[in-house]
Design goal:
binds pyridoxal-5'-phosphate; 38% helix; alpha/beta; 479 residues; Molybdopterin biosynthesis moea protein, domain 2; 15 helices
């Protein structure tokens, strides 16, 4: 056997026949016709005669991007080979300059933080509604955006995340109207919503209402490979040449033809078969949810649990585990270790599962069997005690963080490492992010308070991973 830690592990993972509810959306090639899934290395070329150039497309890449724009309902589309991350960064850098304000939904992905640092823009945070029943953020309301735009008429743009990791979609039609009535561009991080355009049974994509920039991770919910994403542009408020320049600056000069090919394949499959396959999937999910309602221990996130102005992406399964008496983290670990299920992510009291057109009835049947077995496992008393301890925390809306410096100022400042427990009142120098979902608890420049400290400590105690926390639970703070 070759000494190949990554290759050997991945082959082992494939052979374990795990029931997969995580990205990428092709689910170990299941969602892609066999003839299009073979010989990946033979697609790995470079810019030579005939293969075009991602940064200055004139041939096959230009054609594929134009087909994507048509399929996703956008005016134009850029292929991204560094995920939605580089699209979000380029979008912020294209609409703001150093010191300019941008209105940002606070529960944004950490790529928004890096976009703010790179651009030097100053965020004005707006907070999503909080769902105390599941301990999760909901969508943002058009009213809170309107209020922020009136308070900060000099803001250069608005950035929202929709759907969020839990599939909750804010009312995009009203939001676009509000932002455009102030003459500002709207950036939508639609990383989790690349599939929305392909089924009338799902919430609409932001492209349908002509949000100015819409960024989608194809690899999350479509049969595309990791890092493949689209950046769609609509209307006339965006300087396309600036976007092009920023994308060329942020992405490699040797973009992967494997990624680009699968961006094209995902578009073609969704355009030709997406509607039918999604409607079949949604039918199976609804049947699965009905069965699950009879199983003790799980509560499924459905429309009746969420705010009236939001809609849910039915393909995203959010299962609350508090009825089992254990945290989402422990449920995730047990499912993987004993029942061969890998979910996308877990939090204090929820499991999040991604389903795509690669899933079929048998995957959901198998999942149901595993969840009914999980229900019967006798849980360690310590896990139950831990879950009870943090449940009260999850049920309260987290306290809004106070900013002392902009993300760029904190990034540029001198920093030191300190034990988290001794950091009350200090200014956070890094990005503290549970991963997944990748939404920062603390942005650079925000003041660390006791509530944030116990929140971070309890995630770690429960087995969650928090990026930005060093050895001995230390953090970077501004000197
Ligand atoms: C809401 C959100 N936005 C952006 C991203 C970044 O996407 P990518 O991994 O395609 O760079 C993620 C990744 O998880 C995300 O959850």
């Amino acid at each position: 056997m070759y000494n190949l830690p990554i290759y050997n592990y991945l082959r082992k993972y494939e052979k374990e026949n795990i029931n997969i509810f995580h990205m990428p959306g092709h689910k170990l090639a299941r969602g892609i016709p066999q003839e299009l899934a073979m010989n990946v290395l033979k697609l790995d070329v470079t810019e030579i005669d005939g293969t075009d150039n991602l940064h200055y497309p004139e041939g096959i890449i230009k054609e594929a991007q134009e087909l994507a724009a048509m399929a996703f309902g956008a005016d134009s589309t850029f292929f991204l080979v560094n995920g939605s991350t580089c699209g979000i960064q380029a979008a912020i850098m294209s609409v703001c300059t150093r010191g300019q304000k941008v209105i940002v939904e606070r529960d944004s992905h950490k790529s928004v933080v890096s976009g703010l640092i790179l651009s030097g823009a100053e965020p004005i945070f707006i907070y999503p509604q909080y769902n105390c029943k599941f301990g999760i953020n909901e969508g943002i309301s058009a009213e809170s955006i309107e209020k922020a735009l009136c308070m900060y008429p000099d803001a250069a743009a608005v950035l929202i995340t929709r759907p969020n990791y839990y599939g909750i979609c804010s009312d995009i039609e009203s939001i676009v109207k509000v932002v455009h009535s102030h003459g500002k561009p709207l950036i939508v991080d639609e990383a989790h919503g690349a599939h929305l355009a392909f089924s009338p049974l799902l919430p609409p994509s932001a492209n349908q209402y002509k949000a100015d920039i819409v960024i989608q991770s194809a690899h999350k919910t479509l049969p595309a490979v990791t890092q493949g994403a689209y950046m769609h542009i609509n209307g006339s408020l965006i300087d396309i040449e600036k976007i092009r320049f920023n994308l060329a600056m942020l992405q490699t000069s040797s973009p992967s033809y494997i990624i680009m090919t699968y961006l094209d394949i995902a578009r073609e499959l969704m355009q030709t078969e997406g509607k039918e396959r999604l409607s079949h999937l949604i039918e199976e999910i609804n049947a699965f949810k009905n069965r699950l309602a009879e199983l003790h221990g799980f509560k499924v996130l459905e429309d009746n649990y969420t705010n009236i102005n939001t809609v849910l992406d039915t393909t995203r399964l959010v299962l609350n585990t508090s009825g089992l008496g254990i945290s989402g983290y422990k449920a995730e670990a047990e499912l993987r270790a004993k029942l061969s299920v890998q979910v996308e992510m877990a939090d204090y009291e929820n499991l999040v599962l991604i389903t795509t057109i690669a899933d079929e009835k048998r995957n959901l049947d198998r999942l149901y069997e595993s969840l009914s077995k999980l229900n019967q496992i006798p849980f360690n008393d310590e896990w139950v005690r831990q879950a009870e301890k943090v449940r009260s925390l999850a049920r309260q809306k987290p306290v809004d963080a106070l900013s002392a410096l902009s993300p760029y100022e904190a990034y540029a400042a001198q920093k030191e490492s300190k034990e988290l427990k001794n950091c009350i009142g200090r200014i956070c120098g890094g990005v503290i992010t549970p991963y997944p979902p990748g939404i920062p608890i603390l942005y650079p420049g925000e003041i660390i308070d006791s509530e944030k400290i116990s929140y971070i400590e309890s995630i770690i105690e429960l087995g969650g991973k928090v990026n930005g926390i060093g050895n001995n639970i230390s953090v970077q703070v501004v000197k």
